[in-house]
Amino acid sequence: IPLEDASIDKAILANVFHEFENRRHLIDELHRILRMNGHAFIIDWKYEAMEMGPPLEHRIAKRHVVRDFKSRGFRLAHDWDIYELNYVLEFVKTGKSL
Predict the structure, then answer these.
(1) Which residues, listed in sequence order, are joined to residue 39 by a DSSP beta bridge?
(2) The sheet that has 74-80: what strands, in order across it?
(3) 40 in Cβ contact with 88 (< 8 Å)
(4) Distance separating the N- and C-terminal Cα atoms of the chain
(5) Is the dihedral of CA 47, 92, 8, 36 positive or negative?
(6) Helix or strand or coil: residue 77?
């Protein structure tokens, strides 16, 4: 990501997280560009078969997203269940990335 280290307060990824091949690298980049206590919001398709959105095999269960963010220097701040088709997760940068 062409941004300087610790240069932003918030990042929002809406319905794209499942598209990245190397999601851990993306999380590391988010960690790099976010200031300490910066927030990353992930909105993505629920891990359920449905008529819209990507096929189930492309979706990521939110428990896996939470695990990956927690393992790379973030804590889960909020888990909203406000949309029928999507989950919304808010992470806060708390420590060093791997």
Answers:
(1) 10, 92
(2) 8-14, 34-45, 86-93, 74-80
(3) no
(4) 18
(5) negative
(6) strand
The model's confidence at residue 98, banded by pLDDT at 50, 70 and 90, is low
pTM for this model (two decimals):
0.94
pLDDT digits (tens, 9 = 90+) for 38-75: 999 999 999 999 999 999 999 999 999 999 999 999 99
Contact by Cβ (8 Å): 31, 86:
no
Query: Which among 74, 73, 75, 48 has a CA at the least distance from the CA of 61?
Result: 48
Place of tokens 């919304």: 88
In this structure, the dihedral spanned by the alpha carbons of residues 14, 17, 20 and 26, taken in order and rounded to 10 degrees, is 100
Among all chains, which residue has been given the structure tokens 């999601």?
A: 23
Amino acid at 87: Y
The answer for residues whose C-beta is within 8 angstroms of residue 21's C-beta and 6 or more apart is none
What's the one-letter identity of residue 45? W
**What is the C-alpha separation between 61 and 98, in angstroms, rounded?**
22
Name the token pair of 18: 């499942």
